[in-house]
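FORM 7B: Structural annotation worksheet

SECTION A. Query
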Amino acid sequence: MWIHLSGAATLPIFLGVCLLGLAVGSPLLPVWLEMFLVAVAGIVPVLWMQWFRPFYIFSILVVAVKPQNLTSVQHRLLTRFKTKLNQGIALFVAVFLAVILWQLYRLAPLAATVAPFPPSWRWAGLLLAVAAFLASNLFLQVSASVMAVLLTPESEFAATKPHVVEKIRQDFTIAPWQVDRLLPALAAETTAGVAAPAESIEPASSIGNSAGSIVNPEPADTNGVTSLPEESSEKK
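SECTION B. Predicted structure
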């Protein structure tokens, strides 16, 4: 979740790319119509997703954790993404970015000298602006929803019912490639895993010694090695 929360840091980059796309050439359509098309293409898909099938937060790009592998706490987190509060946040973010888009459209002529395409490629510039604005909406929408969930009061979160596993694919937008876990084991986990066998030798040996001491008790100051010479001396 922290990865998606930090995704908002990329917002200035995508908005900058959107500005460069709008700076290509002169408008081919009325200004209000071009801005409306860019806004609809960049806002509506993400807003619809967050309202009806929120982004499955336990995923990165096209890879997602299998729903059946989630913990009870993670199921509660999914339930929090389906609240009316998150829907309201999604609507607020959409309006906020629409206002920013209008400001970018007004500033676009100032960036004409650094436009990535020649002036005759206006449509290519608009497609670039749409793609960048869509990415801006996606990253900010997901980050805002994650922030709202993380700020949920502990008592309210404890009272949240876990989301039903069978309905996750139906209620959330989940990546097609699903795996058991997203990231490899951390270094600390790997170190603990390597140290565990070495540490487990001592308990295993102690269990064996204690079992042997019950069947064949020995003096406390012997370790079983001196028993062989005793047997040999008796035979002699």
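SECTION C. Observations
The beta strands are 59-60, 63-65, 177-179. The CA atoms of residues 22 and 106 lie 9 Å apart.

SECTION D. Sign-off
Analyst initials: ____
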